Amino acid sequence: MLMHEQLGYLLEVAERSNVTVQIVDPGCVTGLIGAFMIAELSGGEPSAIHADSAAEGLVSATPELVSSIWNRYESIRSWAYPEHVSLNMIKEVMAQWI
């Protein structure tokens, strides 16, 4: 029941105009390197990143690191299914968890 609710919440959040939900193909090893966040700052300031490792997190606005994380993000996005396919996949799995 909990899994059904969690998948339902993903579908609910996907309805927001500022949210895109995409499932990434399991073959995407780039996505397994570790968690990261990209902050696009306003006012023309450079982006900043937060990258996790097993030992610690790193926050940086160093152009080389920011560029590296953007490249990882784009690589992961290239492995992602289109949003409509991803949402249908979630619905199919959700039906199994009733």
From TrEMBL:
Residues 2-92 form the DUF5753 domain. InterPro entries: DUF5753. Pfam families: DUF5753. It comes from the Bacteria. This is Scr1 family TA system antitoxin-like transcriptional regulator. It comes from Sphaerimonospora cavernae. The lineage of its organism: Bacteria, Bacillati, Actinomycetota, Actinomycetes, Streptosporangiales.
